[in-house]
Amino acid sequence: MARSGADVAQLIETGGLRALLYRSRRRTLSIQVEPERGLVLRAPYGASPAALRDFLERRRAWIERQRGRVAAQAAADPVPRWVDGELLAYLGERLPLRIEAGSPASARLSGGAIRARVPEPGDAEQVRAAVERLYAREAARLFPAYLAECLALPAAGGLPPPELRVRAMRSRWGSCDTARRVVTLNRGLVRRSPELIRYVIMHELAHLRHRAHDAAFYGLLARLCPGWEGLRAALAEVRP
What is the pTM of this model? Predict the structure, then answer.
């Protein structure tokens, strides 16, 4: 039978490094350190175990640095447990989560809290889904206004408004399709401060004029967003 897509993960270990191995039709090796799964190695079907272990050994220093970064991110931005009373991020603030029984499942902002109503208050998945729907609504409501603010900046120089899309993104805060003039924002940005949201928007707007991360791009970004370096560093401390 012909193989397609990525296979079920295997384990590969060398010198104390233990990785989940996914094989597929890809041509190159890649390694990631993820908060939930840990070390993830992606490889072509034909890559030998010896070659994979050698790759891990050569990337050991990078892996350790990434593990430290992921641990720091987890401490600064803990994974929600979706229980009553915990603090959830919204626009850079930490709001208490209040859960009550009721249906249909829903969540709203009220009285300085995130209030979730679900049929089974002890069911974390029901609470998570309700709050994520709230985040999605808030992102769709707020992000167009932030985009308009950024486009009104003098440094924007009359850039025509791009099409704005908001969706869940696993590993990026935003992207820009320069050919179609489409800016896509990660709806998870609604958990971050308005300053960070605007920084991501201005970064993507700069790509409308300069596709590559070259001197011209960073020159425009500096005019759009003075102090962008600090904002980028702050955003790097949290997960998409």
Answer: 0.74
